[in-house]
């Protein structure tokens, strides 16, 4: 196939960021360390590991650990999101852990990665969903951690383990090009863009197909918004982000047209903005 040269380079880059079993043990150990502090303090009664680590789609040294700190149930009195984040931050700080709070999480930082992003959550009794912070407006929004996990697991069963490689390549692109998309949104877009396939095509074709759907979503296409179940965050509605996505889509399409290793390497480097590409050679 013409695209073997680009595919081989992309596969090698993916291998360089694929977490090892030891990485996942480290992720779990940090989550347990933070959760133990929170539960012993009484600030939360239970916790849940979510995010890319829970879905096994993390990047080796680039992923943080996402932890829900469940403060209570929706049927009980509960704090506002900002107060919940402040309480989590104060508890971790008192235990000697450096914390950087924002509008969504209290991020526990350590001398060595990963960081642990602790999000306050309110559990709906009898349902597998939670209330989590919605951002600057200090309100709660509904969150179901099983929805994306189910989508990802279905894609893996249908397309094989290489689907996870595609997701990692997308996440690495997002970091290197500073596209500012959420990793979870990229993972969902990947499942939706490839949902009609039963055999995974070459990586460059997958990337082009997913980024094309991403461009439609960020560009305000109503059909894509309906498929995602939501519009893109307001911060993505700008010409700069859309230009990065469209440019990267064009590069991924161009990768499919060459069998020459030197030309393919140039496309791969351009796709990642010059970063990380050296790991492929």
Written overview of the protein:
- With 281 residues, the protein is α+β, with helices and mostly antiparallel strands.
- The chain contains eleven helices and seven strands.
- Strands 1, 2, 3, 4, 5, 6 and 7 form a seven-stranded mixed β-sheet that branches.
- α1 packs across α6 and α1 (4-17) packs across α11 (261-271).
- The protein is globular.
Number of strands: 7
Could you list the spans in which at least 5 consecutive residues all have pLDDT below 50? none
What sequence of helices (H) and strands (E) makes up the elements?
A: HHEHEHEEEEEHHHHHHH
Mean pLDDT: 91
How many distinct helices?
11
How helical, in percent, are the residues?
Answer: 40-55%
Structural category: alpha+beta
CA-to-CA gap between the ends? 20 Å
Q: Please tell me what the overall shape is.
A: globular
Largest sheet: 7 strands, mixed
Please provide a brief summary of the model:
This protein has 281 residues and is of the alpha+beta class. The protein is built from 11 helices and 7 strands. It is globular, with a radius of gyration of 20 Å.
């Amino acid at each position: 196939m013409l695209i073997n040269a680009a595919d081989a380079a992309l596969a090698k880059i993916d291998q360089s960021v694929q977490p090892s079993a030891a990485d996942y043990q480290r992720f779990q150990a940090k989550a347990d360390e933070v959760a133990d502090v929170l539960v012993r303090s009484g600030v939360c009664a239970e916790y849940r590991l979510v995010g890319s680590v829970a879905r096994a789609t993390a990047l080796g040294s680039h992923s943080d650990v996402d932890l829900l700190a469940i403060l209570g149930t929706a049927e009980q009195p509960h704090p506002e999101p900002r107060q919940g984040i402040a309480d989590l931050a104060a508890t971790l700080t008192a235990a000697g852990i450096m914390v950087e709070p924002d509008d969504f999480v209290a991020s526990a930082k350590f001398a060595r990665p990963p960081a642990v992003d602790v999000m306050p959550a309110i559990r709906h009794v009898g349902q597998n969903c939670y209330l989590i912070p919605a951002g600057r407006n200090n309100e709660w929004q509904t969150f179901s951690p099983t929805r994306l996990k189910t989508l990802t697991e279905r894609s893996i069963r249908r397309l094989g383990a290489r689907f996870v490689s595609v997701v990692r390549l997308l996440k690495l692109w997002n970091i290197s090009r500073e596209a500012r998309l959420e990793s979870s949104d990229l993972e969902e877009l990947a499942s939706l863009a490839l949902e009609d396939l039963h055999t995974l095509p070459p990586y460059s074709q997958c990337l082009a197909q997913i980024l094309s759907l991403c461009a439609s979503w960020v560009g305000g296409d109503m059909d894509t918004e309906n498929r995602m179940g939501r519009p893109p965050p307001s911060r993505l509605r700008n010409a700069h982000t859309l230009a990065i996505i469209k440019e990267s889509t064009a590069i991924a399409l161009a990768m499919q047209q060459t069998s020459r290793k030197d030309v393919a390497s140039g496309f791969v480097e351009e796709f990642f903005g010059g970063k990380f590409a050296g790991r492929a050679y």
